[in-house]
Amino acid sequence: MKKKLKNLLTRNIGLKILALVFSVFLWFFVVSVNDPEQTQTFTAAVQILNADVLESTGEYYTVTDGKTTVSFQATAKRSILDKLTGADFTATADMNFLDRDKGRIPVEISVNRYVSQVSLSTRARYINVTIGEKTAAKFVIEGDTKGTPADGFAVSSVAVAPNIVTVDGPANTVNKIKRVTATVDVDGMSKDVTEAVVPEFLDDFGDPINTSGLDINLSSVQVTAQIQSVKAVAIKVETTGELAEGLELDKITTDPSTVTILGDSGILNDITDITIPSTVVDLSTITEDFETTVDITRYLPEGVSILNSTDGTVKISVDVLSHQEKVFAVPTANITLTNVAAGCRAHFTTETITVTIAGLERKLTAMSADAITGSVDCSGLSEGSHKVNVQFNLDEGLTAGTVTAEVEISPDTGTQNAGSQN
After folding, report:
1. Which of 21, 127, 322, 334 is the most exposed place for a label (fewest CB within 10 A)?
2. In sequence order, which residues have a C-beta less than 8 Å from that of residue 10 and are 6 or more positions away?
């Protein structure tokens, strides 16, 4: 049996070896035909190495256009390529090899699987970056509100905690920040509101700034809006002393004339006005129109404040009127001649007479010569020309100087002249 098996294995040994060689060759041929080498494009994310080298120079980098991937070609058997994805490759850009003039870093690509069976394209690849100055700054966060509280209520104060924020990043972005605000919604509210708010960074024009490239030490802050009752009240001015002789008080006004105050409703209910004490306006020291400004917040009851801070400063105006003189040319037709002797008639020898009237400016300004009337008593006057005193009908507070006029007395021929009386 053994001999028979030996003869079977050793018989035609040359043909058997040749058949084995042919089989191996045929296998390689089939494999090469069915699994050829191919080239395929892959995309991999680029890792930035040694980015901290810029920190020592106070600089930062950003990837141009945000493109952080690179495409490349790999060559291998089709069966190998079918098993590979972009995750099987590593793409790195070392900041130590930064080309500052061209703003780019060379990208090195390596394969993580089938290393000996995959070849990579040797074409140079780069990732483009922008290098800039880095800076840090601190800003005070301003509390703000949006919306309108319920009727009869207003925001008395807004507090932010913490109220300081630190930002670190590209100088060209940090330098654009002019204000940082944190806004809480108070629409329809009648009690205090507290919310966690994300601060908003604004430029010169009040537009939001994209802070995605900045390091910010706060993600949110707590904003509390205190809401209190409000009430509009008049401003009252008390005075001391009296105006000098010849002066009259016209009016005292304030700007604004009313002010809106806020506080607890229990306190506001008892307030009807805000009184500026008499120590502010002493009439005995005033000789002409007078103006002064006062801070009325000092006269507010405890627990009460002004809604609008600009209303805290009030202008007081004291208008006074002084005695003056004014000359009028009064038509003699306005002057009545009384007690003319029987059988005689009387008339003025001029069409107008001049009178100087003294009184308050506003009264004199309102007067018209055509509206002034008066009279002359002709008792005892005989025929001929006479100098007579004219009495004027004036309002209280007005006085006229002594005025004489010439009156002609003549026989009555039956026609009574205007401005005369029998």
Report:
1. 21
2. none
Q: Any residues with CB less than 8 A from the CB of 62 and at least 6 apart, and which? A: 129, 130, 132, 170, 213
pTM of the model: 0.54
Cα–Cα dist 272/17, whole Å = 123
pLDDT in tens, 278-325: 999 999 999 889 999 999 999 999 999 998 888 889 999 999 888 888
User: What is the spatial distance between Cα 357 and Cα 393, in angstroms, rounded to a whole number?
Assistant: 11
Mean of the pLDDT values across residues 161-165? 97
Beta strands in 186-312 (DSSP E): 193-197, 200-202, 215-216, 221-240, 247-255, 258-263, 273-282, 290-295, 305-306
Q: How far is CA 418 from CA 42, 332, 338, 380, in A?
A: 122, 9, 13, 21
> Facing residues of 89 across strands?
111
Give pLDDT tens digits for 176-201: 999 999 999 999 999 999 999 999 99
Q: What is the pLDDT of residues 86-117, one digit of tens each?
A: 999 999 999 999 999 999 999 999 999 999 99
Per the CB < 8 A criterion, the answer to whether 376 and 335 are in contact is yes
Residues facing residue 158 across a β-bridge? 225
Rounded Cα distance between 92 and 412, Å, is 133
Strands 59-63 and 153-161, bridge-based pairing: unpaired
pLDDT tens digit sequence for 164-174: 999 998 898 99
DSSP per-residue string spanning 281-329: EEGGG-SS-EEEEEEGGGGSPTT-EESSGGGGEEEEEEEEEEEEEEEEE
β-strand partners of 331: 352
